[in-house]
Amino acid sequence: MVSGKLSHELEVNAPAGDVWAVFDGLKVAKLIEENLTQFIQKVDVLQGDGGVGTIVCLKFVPALGYSDSKEKITKIDHENRIKETEVVEGGYLALGFTSYRYRVQIVEKGKDSSIIKSNVEYEANDENVAKHATVEPVQNVAVLVQKHVTKA
After folding, report:
1. Which residue, among 40, 45, 113, 97, has the nearest Cα to 73 in the 3D structure?
2. Does pTM surpass 0.90?
3. Which residues have CB under 8 Å from 97's CB, separation 6+?
4. Whole-angstrom Cα distance, residue 6 to residue 117?
5. Catalytic residue numbers?
6. pLDDT tens sequence across 89-136
7. Using CA atoms, how far apart are residues 150 and 90, in angstroms rounded to an integer?
């Protein structure tokens, strides 16, 4: 069994509450669908309203060759601004991972600045599978949220 954790941090010139407001609920899913069109064709909400237990299906652009990814929100901590999501079908699991989880925490840095801390945690039965783990998707989402909350 191979397991690992990848991390990314991005400073944002916006209050932590404003940044969290995008990650809390389904607003981030809508932003992804509208702005990351080079990767994502559609985001379907299969179950829930953005709270714990919500399941979304990310449909990738066919040219990428990835299977659709069903992801479930497993934790939302408003006080500490933490959201955790786990791939429950397709996506990275279809590549051979046995577990693939995302964690985002918004940390207040100052009155008008914050940090988006993103982590990917994974498990795989094979090192050749594990080498495909990447922080790039959470990095792309962090940059997207940064642009959204800092636009004039």
Report:
1. 45
2. yes
3. 87, 122, 123, 124, 129, 130, 132, 133
4. 11
5. 83
6. 999 999 999 999 999 999 999 999 999 999 999 999 999 999 999 999
7. 33
